[in-house]
Amino acid sequence: MDYKNSGVDIEAGYRSVELMKEHIKNTMRSEVLTNIGGFSGAFSMEKFKNMEKPTLVSGTDGVGTKIKLAFLMDKHDTVGIDCVAMCVNDIACAGGEPLFFLDYIACGKNIPEKIATIVSGVAEGCVQSDCALIGGETAEHPGLMPEDEYDLAGFAVGIVDEKDLITGKDIKPGDTLIGIKSSGVHSNGFSLVRSIFDMTEESLNTYYDELGATLGEVLITPTRIYVKGLRAVKEAGVRIKGASHITGGGFYENIPRMLPDGTTAKIDKSSYEVPAIFKLMAAKGNVEEHVMYNTYNMGIGMVLAVDSADADKVIKALESAGDSAVVIGEVVEGTEGVIIC
Predict the structure, then answer these.
(1) DSSP per-residue codes, 50-108
(2) If you average pLDDT over every residue of the chain, what do you get?
(3) φ and ψ at 271, to 5 degrees?
(4) What is the value of pTM for the model shown?
């Protein structure tokens, strides 16, 4: 009897690391001081010593039950982008620049090629956010997880000068709310998605004219990363007063998290076109509008609060970074948190 016969293949682990390296090297920043495969990752803070008060910000998350879709479609090269996005977008909400990322993959059986494909997505998310992938862990769990399944989580660390922290404390009535468009459902509410649609090969391969693609193609689309867009706003000399990453809980839970007491976000739902996937979900699942806005991003992945005089400048900066943005409302007095009208 040996470790391999008990279900853990150490040699497969070694091969996984070797296959990962090709993808990981594309994420390197000059501050990275260690190589992949060591016991820890080292990252120099030398470049940030000129900040008045350098402040670390962090985020951690997983992909949630969207990962079930990857199993059903046998497509594993995009969920890593989702994992990175869920972490680095939160850091960007605080005004931070993501510095490095570490992932954790738990699997029933370590198939090196599959693990490397998953990590290729993680690496792509890091490239999109200028974040170095400096380490991670792949844990084989025979008997605990089915051989063909895995779970993926990670965390990121970023930095911001304390004076540049986005806290929301200065938001006031009259400020403009700018919505940055999402790439689709992102990585939230998939338990409801899986209740609305039959999660079968036939269902996922069904083409919908209103989607312009198959259901599976639309649902698996990775979460948009907003790091470069928010950086472009900062470089344009505009101060973002508040930022809300629209994840699980949709508009009603996430937008109030950036608002000070006594203020409410008034959202004009006609200010942009809700993507077809959300309309299809609401119709097919008979889901009430309030539930949709309380679960999904409804086409807006990030909401920024800015001075009304800066709105046009913010939208122009976001568009220069490849994002699409629109004024979706304003801040008003009140205690409701969010009003959607």
Answers:
(1) TSSSEEEEEEEEE-GGGHHHHHHHT--SSHHHHHHHHHHHHHHHTTPEEEEEEEEEEES
(2) 94
(3) -75, -15
(4) 0.94
